[in-house]
Amino acid sequence: MVALSGDRLLQGGQEQEPEGLLVAAAGLGPVEDATDATAGADDLTARAEVVAVDGHRTLLVELDRPVEQDGDYLEVWLLRPDVSGMVSVGVLQGTTARLELPDDVSLEEYPVVDVSVERLDGDPTHGGRSVLRGELSGDPGLTARAAGPAGDARITPAAGRSR
User: Model-level pTM?
Assistant: First the structure.
């Protein structure tokens, strides 16, 4: 798991120098009927964090344990809350993924992180077998500006956004 703690990132229980500023985070939990997608997914959990580095955003996803996939693979998506639109962010191999977010994808419009089991069938669309999902919290319209004196993340409203 990756977490911002003062001026250090905690990853897998190990302290590391911060690699960016925490913009948004979500706990991911099982999706109803996830057991239909893959065996043992009904108690799976994960953590997702969006970190800003040099003006670029990275989505960090860490599962609490490996997922049985039977030759399929896990894909990470950003969804609209009503699931009327989605953006593929990348593939999750093992239990962790570091995925660069496209600059033109708004976390206000796509605040839901979804992990799905996909077949190796050449079809790039979502296969409909989600196993984990959670909504980025805080305020996805926030952007990380600069670290404070102790290195803590200073989160401020995005330009032009009123509260």
Answer: 0.71
